[in-house]
Amino acid sequence: MVTVLSVGGSIVAPDAPDTDFLSSFVSLVKTWLAEDSSRKLILVIGGGGPARAYQKAFKAVSPNGADDSADWIGIMATRLNAQLVKAAFGDLCPADVVYDPTAVDVFAGRVMVAAGWKPGFSTDNDAVLLAERFSGKRVVNLSNIAKVYTDDPRVNPEAKPIDSISWEDFRKIVGDEWVPGKNVPFDPIASMHAQKAKIQVVCAAGRDIDNLRAILDDKPFTGTVIG
Question: In terms of pTM, does the model score above 0.90?
């Protein structure tokens, strides 16, 4: 039984690595895995603050630089964060960090950690590809927001939280174009892929460890179900 978590860089490393969150997260995962030997977990790690900081620096020194270059900078940040997470799981994660989600065939150990692959989409899309590859029916997208809203609540005070939404309606909110560093609940390219593959996505607040436990246990939780 494979569960896929897309762990946003905004909670792994909002500016620098959040060791309090990582300690709680690793402890929860280890406990959850120990309760059932059939459980396996794929963690796809985002770039967070370091990615945005370096992308901002790139735009400052090269205002007309290519989006591919900005994407590669963000990808390298995801790989650094992923190495940290892999190391935290020790023997539970014996394989190298996955960079290409289409090239991995064997799930060694109990935890697989993946990072950014190539320009054109975010780690959300890598999570969808890995879910599809290992017969996962759901991706849990953990970020710094508890639910998806009808609009950006920081800009529109009339924005309303959403409990569940179809892929068609969700894609009307996020659009179909990927922009490096763009802050959306779920990557537009990943959304198109998930809709096609009939994969459900749950968006929830990653730092709420009790809520994450409820999601993993298929109990009532706070979040948005897409699909």
Answer: yes
